[in-house]
Amino acid sequence: MSAATGNGNGGAGPVGFVGLGNMGGPMAANLVRAGYRVAGFDLAPKALAAAAEAGVEPAGSATEVVADADVVITMLPAGQHVLALYEDGGLLAAARPGTLFIDCSTIDVADARAAHEAAVRAGHQALDAPVSGGVVGAGAGTLTFMAGGDATEFARAEPLFAVMGQKAVHCGAAGAGQAAKICNNMILGISMIGVSEAFVLGERLGLSHQALYDVASTASGQCWALSVNCPVPGPVPGSPADHGYRPGFAAPLMAKDLGLAANAVRSAGVDAELGLRAAALYAAFAEGDGAAEDFSGIIRTIRQRSGGTPQAPATEQNGTPA
Ligand code: NAD
């Protein structure tokens, strides 16, 4: 959604923002542009300086950020950072009673529930609200928020979501936002592997990339991994595959999300064979060739493990070999 200007925040109080990295930095900047007063902190001086350039008031510590805030947003690497900051780091204790804590980091469902309980125990309100849309969506203010917590808290957060994103879904009680995020990404990880395996099999069978794309993208094989983020160059102009697998959605982030999904699968006792396998494949890919690649680059690992099959033969449809 487009950011409002001037007093477009409807008079809402100051926002504290902790974690001003690739995602948090531009999210905080959008709040500033919409007229919010935002105090921010990041352990990395470079991230803090970039946010200050965008109008965020830099603080000397995380607890300094919350002292004056109505709403505190965290955008941190993992659950351990959120939990450590909330309790040992004194964030909850330093905030005024009734502060709304919104954690937008992608973390374990169990950690999200623990963070929620800790916030409520300390006399605050809390939401888990992980996002999809990546760095581009964070900059453009077009993220999707998946929120878990009470309806009252969700309503209180909605104006902020409207500035930083284009869609916010209230998914249910505490932890439901994280649950929605990892379930969605488990579908995505599995489907990208499925699409990639099908393309490599097609190559082996002499089928061109374009022919397989033309059929599957209008048939029952259609999915986002095929029709938007196609793992072979050619059929979808502008896809990461068309740009040497430059992310896009980086493989290490997919590996992280599938790791969180695998944790949840195990603790919920679900027989999710493909989800667990996808987590293992992406973990290996992200540690190796995929460390700096889009997650669709996993097709190259599959091709290699299939004996380095040549890519799709040229046909009338695609003209040149991919
Ligand atoms: P990032 O590493 O760029 O930013 C995290 C920031 O948190 C860093 O600048 C780090 O210095 C700071 N930090 C860590 N501990 C801190 C502490 N105790 N106090 C203050 N600052 C602290 O990561 P990112 O890409 O911005 O991702 C943030 C979260 O968003 C992650 O949970 C990630 O999984 C999720 N996410 C990322 C993307 C993406 O495309 N990058 C997309 C969706 C969700």
Report on the structure:
The protein is of the alpha/beta class. The protein folds into 2 domains: 159 residues, Rossmann fold (3-Layer(aba) Sandwich); 126 residues, N-(1-d-carboxylethyl)-l-norvaline Dehydrogenase, domain 2 (Orthogonal Bundle), CATH 1.10.1040.10. It contains 14 helices and 9 strands. It has a 6-stranded parallel sheet, with helices on both faces. The protein has a 3-stranded mixed sheet with strand order 7-8-9. Strand 8, helix 8 and strand 9 form a beta-alpha-beta unit. Helix 1 packs parallel to helix 2, helix 9 packs across helix 12 and helix 9 packs across helix 14. The longest helix has 29 residues. The radius of gyration is 21 Å and the shape is elongated. The N terminus and C terminus are likely disordered. Bound molecules: nicotinamide-adenine-dinucleotide (NAD). The site of nicotinamide-adenine-dinucleotide has 25 residues, from helix 4, helix 7 and helix 12.
